[in-house]
Amino acid sequence: MTKKVRKAVFPAAGLGTRFLPATKAQPKEMLPLVDKPIIQYGVEEAMMSGCNQIIIITGRGKQAIEDHFDVSYELEKMLEERKKTDLLNIVRSISDMMYVSYVRQKEALGLGHAVLMARELVNDEPFAVLLADDVIDAQVPCLKQMVQVFEETQCSVIATQIVEGKMISSYGVLDVKPVQSHFGDRLYEIQNMVEKPKPEEAPSNLAIIGRYILTPAIFDCLARTQTGAGGELQLTDGMRSLLQKEKMYAYVYEGRRHDTGDKLGFLKATVEFALKRDDLGGPFREYLKGLKL
Ligand code: UTP
Question: Per CATH, the architecture of 7-261 is what?
Answer without folding.
Answer: Alpha-Beta Complex (3.90)
